[in-house]
Amino acid sequence: MNIKVTGLHLEITPSLRDYIESKLERISRHVDDLIDVSVTLSVDKLIQKAEVNVHLSGKDIHVEATESDMYAAIDLLMDKLDRQVLKFKEKQSEHRGAGAHPEASL
Fold first, then answer.
1. CA end-to-end distance (rounded Å), the chain
2. According to the UniProt entry, where is the signal peptide (predicted)?
3. What pLDDT score was predicted for residue 21?
């Protein structure tokens, strides 16, 4: 898994990078085919914004969150991303099992 963290009008400190990587471990437990993750953190006046682009096998997911605190924005972002990844995983498993015909078992 490739993780790219960039900052707009913000310097990415090692503590921010470690915090993001620790939060992304939760996402990587749900899916095995996590290819690339790009996180962008930005500051605009008093608004802290966090965005993430996740490239999975068969799907690209984009999520963004804004808060007054950067760590709160990252937490909100990871919660949203977790829901999106679980939704994708559920859809993927439903489609794989839907191919069997009921008459085939008779």
1. 44
2. none
3. 92
Rounded Cα distance between 52 and 38, Å, is 6
pLDDT per position as a tens digit, 53-96: 999 888 899 999 999 999 999 999 999 999 999 998 888 777 66
CB 42 within 8 A of CB 7: yes
Q: At what angle do helices 70-97 and 14-30 cross, to 10 degrees?
A: 20
- On whether the CB atoms of residues 43 and 49 are closer than 8 A, the answer is yes
Domain locations along the chain: 2-92
Contact of 65 with 77, CB cutoff 8 Å: yes
Question: Is the distance from CB of 70 to CB of 39 less than 8 angstroms?
Answer: no
Bigger pLDDT: 14 vs 104: 14
